[in-house]
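User: Before I run my own analysis I want an independent prediction to cross-check against. Here's the chain; please return only the structure tokens and, at the end, one sentence I can use as a sanity check.
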Amino acid sequence: MKADYNTYYYIAASKHFLTQEEPLEEILREKTEHFIANNKSIDFWIFDSTKLNAHSPNEIKTLQKTFFFPTILIISSNKKFITWLKLRLRYIFTDKIQLAIKL
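Assistant: Structure tokens:
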């Protein structure tokens, strides 16, 4: 049986940079409040490379290994949201990934 793949978009950056030098918590809190106020489903997920475990998607674990430092990934099915984050944050990497699971 062939798995269905879904396209997700992501940003990746140093964990230290996103948690210590950028207002990531504030940005995500504002976006979450916006989603709730507009009755939209929250469609982003945060993966911390230092906290991945056996239950984490294999594709995410493989992607995290491409970075040589502790990394935060923010993944969404909403390309506009990732573009918005890219404009708000500095020193980040963006791309897309095909996942055989639905987040």
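Sanity check: The chain has a mean pLDDT of 83.
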